[in-house]
Amino acid sequence: MSFSHLSLALFGLCLATHSVGAAEVGNIGDSEISAVERRVITKNFMEVGFGPSMLQNMGESGVGYHLLAGFQREATPDAAIRAQANTDFVPGHAWEGDATLGMAYFFSRGDFSPLVSAGFGWGFADGKGWSNGFSLAGTVGMQMFRTATTQLSLEAGPRIVLDNGRDGMPVAWSLGLNLFY
Prior knowledge:
Layout: H1 3-17, E1 43-56, E2 63-74, E3 79-90, E4 94-106, E5 112-127, E6 129-144, E7 151-161, E8 171-180
Antiparallel strand pairs: 1-2, 1-8, 2-3, 3-4, 4-5, 5-6, 6-7, 7-8
């Protein structure tokens, strides 16, 4: 076998092993790339809520009313961004109001999920004197019907205005039934 015959045989072998569309070093096609992270479709909700509340350090010890309006954007299946406006009042005696921006964390992706939330914002209170300042909010609760376009939550927690009034920092403790639509 001569050198020319050997060269021709090797060339033919190379042509036979190369097929169109086969993987090549340095040539990575779109179909070969898998995403590390998939995008999540966010869900946006308006929120309204009501329930009983108790005011602390405002000279009032009775049960009052809690009202809430807000917006929630579920940025991931496990967490949501929240913007809320709350007010708690005992008619004719004392009230607290705040606007906060925060987040909620859901412990389950099913229809019913325990949750915790926290927010930071600005608050006002009037009872035994006027108070205003930064506000901290936190709740624990249960989000219901999470896979539906209309949801409910039952949440309880405090909101604190970080300003010393006559009796200390005003605190509103509330239990809210919230509708997300």
